[in-house]
Design a protein that fits this description.
This protein has 213 residues and is an alpha/beta fold. The protein contains five helices and eleven strands. The protein has helices at residues 36-42, 74-95, 107-118, 161-172, 191-202, and strands at 9-12, 22-25, 48-51, 55-57, 60-62, 66-68, 71-72, 100-105, 123-129, 147-153, 177-183. The strands form three sheets. It has a seven-stranded mixed beta sheet, sandwiched between helices. The protein is globular. The protein starts with 8 loop residues before the first strand and ends in an 11-residue tail after the last helix.
């Protein structure tokens, strides 16, 4: 039933109808297994869809190419975001799940933001952990029905504070309901990220699922 799906991925069926399905997007060097436990912890009983990025950088999977750390190949970002969005829609049909909440870390957060900015109808909302601005000239899409959680690290050596603020403004000016947090940590995930994501997902608006195929 799923042989036509174009990304290597893991899928775990949901066990609670009220739990929203999650799209789990790993960071550089991760794979389809990396965020499964995070997904189970922040939303017990949710269906979990976790694709592996197709781009390899020195053997490490990513979702799109970059020229250097923090310098993205934006043409590739656009192409890969559409490719991943197509996979998400095909996977929803194959597995019979509703519209997904993206939970992305680092490179995974960046591709989730790119999908929001190019194919907003594909995701219901997004939790972006250590994100950056994915596109310098982003489409002026309507995100008024999207909720976004952004969690940054105050001591992150990879992501400048100014970049985090620009992404917040980019999403909020397009209508998204953006909730931002700065944690006194670096780039790695922490227990605080888990706690924030779990609370955010459990808020009433995020549990309404679109069951249309």
């Amino acid at each position: 039933m799923t042989s036509h799906l174009t990304f290597i991925h893991r899928f775990e069926p949901g066990t609670r109808l009220e739990a929203p399905p999650l799209l789990l997007l790993h960071g550089t060097g991760g794979d389809e297994n990396d965020l499964l436990q995070l997904g189970r912890l922040i939303s017990p009983g949710s269906a979990l869809l976790s694709p592996r990025g197709k781009v390899l950088e020195n053997g490490m999977p990513r979702y799109f190419r970059r020229h250097a750390e923090g310098v993205f190949d934006e043409d590739d970002v656009r192409q890969r975001a559409h490719e991943l969005a197509d996979f998400i829609e095909a996977a929803r049909t194959a597995y019979g799940i509703g519209k997904l909440i993206a939970v992305g870390y680092s490179n995974g957060a960046n591709i989730a933001a790119a999908i929001l900015l190019q194919r907003p109808d594909v995701l219901s909302s997004a939790a972006l952990l250590r994100p950056m601005v994915p596109l310098s000239h982003a489409p002026n899409v309507d995100l008024s029905d999207k909720r976004v959680l952004m969690v940054a690290g105050q001591h992150d050596p990879i992501i400048p504070r100014e970049n985090t603020l620009r992404l917040h403004d980019l999403l909020s000016t397009r209508g998204a309901d953006v909730e931002s947090h700065d944690l006194p940590i670096g780039h790695q995930l922490s227990q605080a990220d888990l706690t924030l994501a779990r609370r955010w997902i459990r808020t009433p608006d995020s549990v309404a699922m679109d069951k249309a195929s």
